């Protein structure tokens, strides 16, 4: 298996989205210099990224076939297979993710939600039933869910993480702003808004200090 | 001004959160080896990160004073000043962010929301009024908002970005899964769920293929 860096992996959905926009605009081919101009990556990086997933070379002066590129990227990103996930924590963010319309296109199917608040248990959010957290251990293996999406408060995240791993989850998409201690075989991907805001604030201050 | 890499900036909120947890547990000091064990970063990286924001050295075998570290990090991250922001797009994700309780502690104050749906205009979400998008140009300068949070659909993001920049926004926190073309003086920080999911899926597949 080829090694892909995190930054590189993060670029593929950006390419894919961009190529789909071009198709909608009626374009048929795309060249690396054009992608570089529009997305702000270097031409060299773009060539390297696309060569890593596609064996087909571009045609000089014309570029690469857009439909084939889209197919290749969707295949590479696993958008054509479906992976089953459950979501734990149906607060504002959890509900937002359950209502997010694009996950299905990305091959992510959230099949059930869990919460510890008795007033929401049994509710259906965007078609998915909310179960009590105590049922994770019993339901996760039956749902064959490999991914657990954690949208619980920071204070609960470690305990919930341990229980989904115990129940057989292999990957955690962690939206709680806290570091999780998990076995090395478990994949954790963090979406940390505080970290993203730190980058934004620092750059904004640098810009404002220039004046 | 010192140069900080994006990865480094992203770690500071993780340290801060961790140090606050330790204070709550009654601890007074923290050492780099202990942080390394708990957060999974290397000792060398931790020392470098902390030295970059604090001139105070650690005490051998005891480490650094937690209260002072927390103060330093909060100062560095701008959590003690308040930055004004507006949010555009009050769909599920926009509402989730308006209801997110921790932004105020991070020095981010969202003072108003905008949408183009007449049925939500005039509504109050978590205490903030929703204005029509046409009023961005007029209201942004009066609110003195430097940051625009974009939670609009991908198809609307570029147009909205251009209009908030026209109105004087200096930074865009972009949650729409699309690349924005903006002048180089404008700060853009993307939160792209598709990119995060790409990293998670790739690593999960690599783990499952080991079996």
Give me a quick take on this structure.
Two copies of one chain form a homodimer. Chain A is α/β, with parallel strands linked by helices.
Layout of strands and helices, then pairs:
The structure is a homodimer of 211-residue chains.
Chain A: H1 6-24, E1 29-30, H2 32-39, H3 43-53, E2 64-65, H4 66-76, E3 83-88, H5 92-98, E4 108-115, E5 124-125, E6 128-132, H6 136-143, E7 147-150, H7 154-166, E8 171-174, E9 187-190, H8 193-209
Parallel strand pairs in A: 3-4, 3-7, 4-6, 7-8, 8-9
Antiparallel strand pairs in A: 1-2, 5-6
Question: How does this structure look, described?
Answer:
- Chain A has 211 residues and is an alpha/beta fold.
- The first copy, chain A, has 8 helices and 9 strands.
- In chain A, the strands form 2 sheets. A 7-stranded mixed sheet of chain A has the order 5-6-4-3-7-8-9. A two-stranded antiparallel ribbon of chain A has the order 1-2.
- In chain A, helix 1 packs antiparallel against helix 4 (66-76) and helix 2 crosses helix 3 (43-53).
